[in-house]
Amino acid sequence: MARLADYFVLVAFGPHPRGSGEGQGQILQRFPEKDWEDNPFPQGIELFCQPSGWQLCPERNPPTFFVAVLTDINSERHYCACLTFWEPVEPTQEGLCTEDTAEREEEAGEGGPVGLSPAAPGPPSQLFAPKTLVLVSRLDHVEVFRNSLGLIYTIHVEGLNVGLENVVGNLLTCIIPLAGGSQRTISLGAGDRQVIQTPLTDSLPISRCSVALLFRQLGITNVLSLFCAALTEHKVLFLSRSYQRLSDACRGLLALLFPLRYSFTYVPILPAQLLEVLSTPTPFIIGVNAAFQAEAQELLDVIVADLDGGTVTVPECVHIPPLPEPLQSQTHSILSMVLNPELELADLAFPPPTTSTSSLKMQDKELRAVFLRLFAQLLQGYRWCLHMVRIHPEPVIRFHKAAFLGQRGLVEDDFLMKVLEGMAFAGFVSERGVPYRPTDLFDELVAHEVARMRADDSHPQRVLRHVKELAEQLYKNENPYPAVAMHKVQRPGEASHLRRAPRPFPRLDEGMVQWIVDQATAKMQGAPPAVKAEKRTTVPSGPPMTAILERSSGLHGNSARRLEVVRNCISYVFEGKMLEAKKLLPAVLRALKGRAARRCLAQELHLHVQQNRAVLDHQQFDFVVRMMNCCLQDCTSLDEHGIAAALLPLVTAFCRKLSPGVTQFAYSCVQEHVVWSTPQFWEAMFYGDVQTHIRALYLEPAEDRDPSQVRGDPLGLRDGAGLALAHTRPLWQAGEAPTQEDERSALDVASEQRRLWPTLSREKQQELVQKEESTVFSQAIHYANRMSYLLLPLDSSKSRLLRERAGLGDLESASNSLVTNSMAGSVAESYDTESGFEDAETCDVPGAVVRFINRFVDKVCTESGVTSDHLKGLHVMVPDIVQMHIETLEAVQRESKRLPPIQKPKLLRPRLLPGEECVLDGLRVYLLPDGREEGAGGSRGGPALLPAEGAVFLTTYRVIFTGMPTDPLVGEQVVVRSFPVAALTKEERINIQTPSDQYLPDGLQLRSCTFQLLKMVFDEEVGSDSAELFRKQLHKLRYPPDIRGTFALTLGSAHTPGRPPRATKDKGPSFRTLSRNLMKNAKRTIGRQYVTRKKYNPPSWEHRGRPSPEDQEDEISVSEELEPSTLTPSLALKPSDRMTMSSLVERACCRDYQRLGLGTLSSSLSRAKSEPFRISPVNRMYAICRSYPGLLIVPQSVQDNALQRVSRCYRQNRFPVVCWRSGRSKAVLLRSGGLHGKGVVGLFKAQNAPSPGQSQADSSSLEQEKYLQAVVSSMPRYADASGRNTLSGFSSAHMGSHVPSPRARVTTLSNPMAALASRRTAPRGKWGSVRAGGRSGGLSTDVGTRLAGMGPPQANGAPPDPGFLRPQRAALYIIGDKAQLKGVRPDPLQQWELVPIEVFETRQVKGSFKKLLKACVPGYPATEPGSASFLCSLEDSEWLIQIHKLLQVSVLVVELLDSGSSVLVSLEDGWDITTQVVSLVQLLSDPFYRTLEGFRLLVEKEWLSFGHRFSHRGAHTLAGQSSGFTPVFLQFLDCVHQVHLQFPMEFEFSPFYLKFLGYHHASHRFRTFLLDSDYERIELGLLYEEKGERRGQPACRSVWEYVERLSKRTPVFYNYLYAPEDAEVLRPYSNVSNLKVWDFYTEETLAEGPPYDWELAQGPPEPPEEERPDGSAPQSRRRVVWPCYDSCPRAQPDAISQLLEELQRLETELGRPPERWKDAWDRVKAAQRLEGRQDERGTPSSLLVSSVPHHRRSLGVYLQEGPVGSTLSLSLDSDQSSGSTASGSRQAARRSTSTLYSQFQTAESENRSYEGTLYKKGAFMKPWKARWFVLDKTKHQLRYYDHRVDTECKGFIDLAEVEAVAPGTPTLGAPKTVDEKAFFDVKTTRRVYNFCAQDVPSAQQWVDQIQSCLSDA
Predict the structure, then answer these.
(1) Cα separation of 817 and 821, whole Å?
(2) How far is residue 211's CA from residue 249's CA, in Å, rounded to a whole number?
(3) How far apart are the two ends of the chain, measured CA to CA in Å?
(4) Is the pTM higher than 0.90?
(5) Mean pLDDT of all residues in the chain?
(6) SS3 for 992?
């Protein structure tokens, strides 16, 4: 029984003491005035009466009512019902504000004093002050409170003739029962009647309609979010304008949490003065008036629910874990069915007549029933995980969280984990865990309805029915008597608050009220206490728990067969059949990944222990330990499946005799598992064992049990993990039914004992308590022993405690944090192994263990009620236990070292390259799987090749692992993984479990920029000093002190890496002498010029590293009689300079300049002066710019001496030079470093404001302006500089954002000319099919217009109306860095224009590459399966975004060049991004660079000669170690790969060629990519030495030479799809969505290592079928190809390669010398072409068959033009005619590419430099005939054939005899249709030959070609 109301209080408005505008509440009267003993008066009531503050208001408001909740210090809730009404402020009172309160009270008579602060002027109108009646109660009867206060107010307002004192007295003395479903009628003595119904059980919350209202206000999803937030201890804040709504919402949320009780701050209505409570760090549920919403928005970690707006706002930093699936979706759908029943019927064709919906009260109970069901499903079986630690004097219960999660299959679930760790659940366990107590609806539900709920899950209607049944019970609990007698309570009349009240609320007579209360109290004391006996019962446990979602265990489904294998293996081990066991072991280890197999192992081993078979021999011991380790390595630290718990007794049982008196137990070999260092695991184990023994304590007298089973036997396996059904059986008996009486669970026993407890005598009770306490104490001693067994290592010098568990002694006992691998690595890293760290720390191992055990003992003994004396005794005992154990272990370790070592597989030696030497011989290691799942037999299937056991070798060139998989089932596969030492980017120490389950602390993870990862741990036989030596040697090889130490430079030379290479013997002045002279001169010049100015000087070569051997035979032979006048202004060159010049002329740059017609070096053609550009030797001594080549192209009009001054304006003196010229538009591409501040930028800024100082302007700036002017004037003038538009929009339009702009695809072919033109330049997509109307390649024809957003995007290929566009072009665009060109105003009178773009810096490239490496080769297995994590990390790396930007800028430049404007690329220092862009532009614009030779020339010219800093970017030496690897060149190759993918028919080289260069640019196998510039290569004597040394040198020093040699043997670098279109300018898509991840980053070949060292990659040849050595029948040559093991291109070569190989094999068999693959291929293509001719009218499908290029052209472009019939002839002729627009010189350079112009070659192996059809006049009186002419530069002949595919030469002209080539005139019989300018004559010493070409351009090309041949001669 309890009082209905504890206090009645009258609170009124009073002025604020500090005189502020607001008032404050004052308690006028409270009854009773003395506090009740059991319930003191709550403080601060006056704040809660007016939560928004006490204020006067100008009009009389209607009375309000709400209930606030206060929580006292004992967590008791007090309900404060507040009824507020307003009374007028009397004018007399307004002046009294300043007087003393007491005086005021007296003057005011019975009315409450009211006043205004003096600051406020007296209002002209009447003001009203609030007054509140408050009822304080511990009961929650809202309606009764409302009625009672309403009655008091009504009596006052209506002036009823009833004494208020009587009513208040009756209210305070009303006693009602708490629960039990009784009905009580009360009356307050004013003619009223109220009926109070008490709930049936008080444990169920009372919600009335609050839950239903909450759902109506916020909706299902929001309420579910709030529900999860409250359960996972987040802060929840409700906002509303209504206080009653806030109370209801908070009440509703709490009702949903049942059976858990909310134990944090709970304030449904928070007063304004206490708003700072919201920033408390603890969780809360609080309601605040919506007026204070602004304050709520400043809180960062509070979830805000706006009840009026229906929204829930979750801050970004807060993560609310959702309910585990499928419960989340099921709950959502049931709630939807309850709230919207019509939703189910909405789609019916014939909806049933409307059904009656539940009342709001009923709906409220249905919603609660849904959540009650949810909790029953979540916590189902929780009682099976309770540990009874003590029964008497009070139950002590612990919950085994890990076992619960493990059984439910929810270990990973964030939500349940947080709920179980929360305070609410701890309260739930202590309240509901008690075995003997009253039960309620939830207990019934969780015990008896689980099976029904599981069956109902798939039937929504049945679920709904169940919900309604539960709702009925909840409703009945709240309203046990449905037919309630009507309340009868007087209410005030309508609008009574507006009538003027006769008087203020009267002051009540305290004495009278007190007398009534005292009377009632006396009466109560006389009456006997009405105690209703609680009905207590044993709480039912319900069925054992099951997983919440039956997950299939995937790979390791445990079939009975697997368990059978485990059992057999164990029985073989114990029977001594070791060979049999060894066969089964791999299968067992694999099966042990599954839970059932692990349990089965524990069960079988337990049986053998019981049969006294625990002493094993060495082999048996090894097997048992391996299987145990395998079981334990998958155990998490929580051991949620109880495997470690089941093995714990076994590891202290199995042992082997090492020598007399020395026994080694299994625990010393299974210590290296994280579970043993987890305090929670030991606590759960301890409590489980205590429960077993306490239960046995009470069963013992009843049943006659074997005492050893109870206390003496440490192996009494408990079910600790809660996995058993009955709480005593070991976990593997879970399936059996309880058979005997003693199968009662510990909870049953405890329940029985609790029932008997009150009946026992005092002595008996004492005895039981003592017995229990000593049981717990003995277990604590037992566990101190056990823990020391598993925590003290056998060999403390290799202690895992020191490394992995560095913080073991300091682990908080409750903390679950484990030192992660990376952290452990860093801990290990931070000590130096040789500094004695191991020895220094060894002594503290016992200390750490003692601290760990003591902390454990403290915690469990305090919780289990062990006496303090016993606890002190334990603390004394623990160090002794540990010390004793250490002494025992020393003997064990000493003896174990004498055991013979286990046989290990023999080491496999790797194959080495010629010249590669072993530095460190094989160290035994395990290669562990990294994140690439293929090697470990991941989703693509295949064997688990990793982990592998083998050895790591360190050579001068590579780090190599060779070994075999540890899983013997994989077979005898050799696993090889290697990478060049020079490619190492990161090396870190790791600590990891090995596959053979011993713990080896020395692990290394090596990562390389060739996308290989060696994650390995050294075998125990490898000492830590050997491992350290390996690291040091590796470091020494990776970062040699100077570049001479790299493999490429030491390879094959006898000298040691410190001495300079031997001098070369050569005729005449040697190249070494030459380089020395050159250096002397250069240094002298540099010395002169750089005395006064400090500049960047590249560090000398000792501090860097990368040379480029350009040792190819140069096909452009430079005439020895150089005429100095064409080369340099000074006429007299010293002989050494002459030598320098001839060497420089042989360089790649120079050959390319000649090909492009950018200045000639020979006087035989007198065109030099008319050329707009010239080759300047001004930098031949590298005096102006060290990082530029010796010869540079500059405008003809600029003198050499001016260049020195121009160069000062540019970073690193890299002034603008021409590097390429378009053959069609004659526009040039220039490159330079970025500008210094006073360059063009300063020039543009200063132009418009001439100042007096202008005359002294920096001369170099003026020189620079002149220089740019000279560049502009050297070009064909398309542009008159008046009406240009600008490109300034480019940066914002294109480079500013990461999002590529959408491509325009609109194209109109209405203009036939445009369509025709589009045919010429339209790009093709993949496989060459031309998209219908071309595509817009990022930038349309007029780039400026488009970028500035002014013109319509046009079809990519169509050149627009020339008259419209060309006047708008600037003659020169300067592409510069946006940051550099900030604030520049381009002047319309200049002929050039600046294009500022945003580029990324090299450090961004470096950072991006690191992330790319981690994405493609993660060091650890991915957390989430599938490609999602890979794609996320790929996106994070932003690598593809950088590729996109590079391609985008390059396409922009290509567009500009193609339209006739020249472009200067001037970014950063001019050697990184500039090089990338310039190279890409040339590759896209000029088909020559897409050939093998052309690409080589491009790399030599732009990357090597123009000084890309390979050594600096590749960190080749010790000095560069800190700068790290920056893959600028690799990024360029990736861009080329992207273009190759989109245009596979345009490249002569295959994708493998790009991978090959990507691998070897970092490998240091060749000298090509060493050092930073030609200057450094000459300084080291690398550039020209190869000429002299090469003959005696077997190893290739240049990558190009190697490619050349290899190409003769195999077509690996050749692309069979190659069929170029001659004038093709490529415009690739650059959107990120069009880019693909390069397979160079992701593929690997474990059979032989990376396939880029061709000699190593070729495995031993298989014997042919007939010659099997055993003479048996030929076996099948089919074999399995594994995706990451075999090299797929070699195992399954493409059809053409296979046929070529077959051809060679057959030729060898026939005894013919095999011809080269190239010749066979060319012959086949020629035959194809002939076939195509005969079938000219063939259908498109036959074209498809006849040859790939036809297919592309006929089906693609030409079909747009005319009748299908003409397509074929057009496409056939186009090979030579469509090339006619290209410049002759460009095509002349395609020497080595025999298929570029002639797709089909004759059988004769010959070099065709240029070929085509010409008409030739026969000898005297003979007619003109068309013949096929071939110009052969190698043989120096012009041969002719009858037709294209004729193999027989009909005659030739020897070019040595040619005197001149001149224009000719048509003679008699000449072709009529040809222009007369197409005739030309070739005059030889014997006769004059008359020729006629098909049109004028091709005639011009023939003349140019023949002349260039003559000039080369």
Answers:
(1) 12
(2) 7
(3) 123
(4) no
(5) 75
(6) strand
